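quick q for whoever's on today - can somebody do inverse folding on this one?? i tried earlier but teh output was garbage lol. tokens:
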């Protein structure tokens, strides 16, 4: 694989400046929700880079995984370590993966946070593409 050189140019207001109301930007939410969204948003990149230990840290101690629309069966409650073991057994079988999130949102109430995201998972073997999409809650 060749290395890629990227140039990123961003036009933005000065650091910490308040965007004027006329800028047309939607409110960005509160800081605690932003922290949760940041953690949730890190999961796809960690998985695509095979950084499963990093991805594991993003989950609560107990999680419910519902892949019934893909595989049938029943939803399963497991630990993040169990989920990563599962993903480690599947993802490296592909030549490449790219998981993209959109519409990520979070709600924080006290010490509890919930997040949702639309996930577009792309998985290649040769020129064959498997693309499951759906909502993660």
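ok took a stab at it. sequence:
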């Amino acid at each position: 694989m060749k290395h890629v050189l990227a140039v990123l140019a961003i036009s933005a207001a000065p650091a910490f400046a308040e965007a004027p109301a006329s800028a047309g930007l939607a409110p960005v939410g509160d800081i605690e929700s932003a922290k949760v969204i940041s953690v949730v948003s890190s999961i796809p990149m960690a998985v695509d880079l095979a950084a499963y230990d990093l991805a594991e840290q993003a989950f609560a101690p107990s999680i419910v995984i519902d892949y019934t629309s893909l595989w049938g069966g029943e939803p399963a409650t497991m630990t993040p370590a169990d989920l990563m073991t599962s993903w480690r057994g599947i993802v490296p079988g592909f030549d490449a993966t790219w998981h993209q999130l959109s519409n990520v949102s979070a709600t924080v109430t006290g010490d509890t946070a919930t997040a949702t995201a639309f996930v577009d998972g792309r998985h290649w073997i040769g020129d064959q593409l498997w693309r499951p999409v759906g909502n993660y809650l």
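fwiw The CA atoms of residues 15 and 71 lie 47 Å apart. also The first strand starts at residue 63 and ends at 65. so keep that in mind when u check it
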